[in-house]
Amino acid sequence: MDLALLDRVLAEHGEPAYRRRQVWEWTARGVASYEEMTTLPKSLRWALADEVPFSTLEVVTQREARDRTAKTLFRTHDGHPVEAVLMRYRDGRRSVCLSAQSGCPLTCTFCATGQMRFGRNLTASEMLDQVLHFRRLEPVNHAVYMGMGEPLLNYESVIASVRRLPDLGITYRRTTLSTVGWMPGLRRFVDEVGEPIRLAFSLHAADPGLRSELMPVNDRYPLEDVLAECRRYVALRRRKVFVEYVLLAGVNDSPARARELAAVLDPRAFKVNLIPYNPTGVFEASSREAIARFKAVLDRARIPATVRLTRGRDIEAACGQLAATR
Ligand code: SAH
């Protein structure tokens, strides 16, 4: 729901200020239409239905994987594709993976989103509407800004959307921003955002040459600067930074690469999340054995590390597979 448009329309109708809160509270609770907002006068419900589209996003397709991960392809009013994913875990966790941009201007070689055309930054309302879509299916309790795009390239709108997530049942502690290490946004995030939002950093190679090959953004913002900024976050927020490391067979998955990684990370500040590569046509995925060997090196260095469960791969909903093709 375009909250700026809602404000304008309510004002035009001469409605009292508390209407805005009423509409938002109903919406955040997951109602499916204005019709269900029974504390609003009927005439106002009709007027809103006419003048303020209930969602800024139109659903194009919806698919469900064997593990019950759901992926929705949306379209913005001006035709840009956006994907979001709902991950359902046995312990009751319901985690929405949402997109901050349509497409992505960065060109990380292993990520399908980087291969599609960049559209534009999404508005805060467009990000909230991704979450609200799933909220209408069932209660949700985690959000990860790990869909399409680079959240810190869309700083203002991302933070504005994060600040409304608690109304939808998602606390700051259960909200994670993931970044390639876009320094201007990261500095602002560390300096300006006091809320205990989790930070995840896509590292993928500790060697500068290899990292630049995989992620051209590394030429612009070198790893050591980003890691220093991450340590500043840890010192201020007293929460570890999650390091994401996608394992590419024969590229960055050897024990030597693991030692390089361990050498740049302080175990008190970082926790590593090893991500099995989801095929996007360019690299090969590391074997189970290679993943275990890599993790064993981190274990010996006492760097906390886990291997991320792959979800939704059969519907191209897994990490790095969002390309808005179907
Ligand atoms: N641009 C931000 C937000 C996207 S997060 C960032 O990169 O952090 C998406 C995560 O999935 C990132 O850690 C990304 O590196 C990882 N990823 C990308 N392509 C992948 C693939 N093919 N298989 C597994 N993980 C991938």
Mean pLDDT: 96
- What would CATH call the architecture of the largest domain? Alpha-Beta Barrel
Number of helices: 11
SSE order in H/E notation? HHHEEEEHEHEHEHHHEHEHE
What is the strand arrangement across the widest sheet? 1-2-3-4-5-6-7-8-9-10
Remind me, CATH topology of the largest domain? TIM Barrel
E-strand count? 10
Radius of gyration over C-alpha positions, nearest whole angstrom: 21 Å
Bound molecules: S-adenosyl-L-homocysteine
What is the CATH C level class of the largest domain, in words? Alpha Beta
Which regions contain 5 or more consecutive residues with pLDDT less than 50? none
CATH-defined superfamily of the largest domain: Aldolase class I
Helix content: 25-40%
Number of domains in the coordinates? 2
Report strand %.
15-25%
Give the biggest beta sheet. 10 strands, mixed
What class would the helix/strand composition place it in? alpha/beta
What is the approximate shape?
A: elongated
What is the CA–CA distance across the termini?
24 Å
Write a compact overview of the structure shown.
This protein is α/β, with parallel strands linked by helices. It is built from 11 helices and 10 strands.
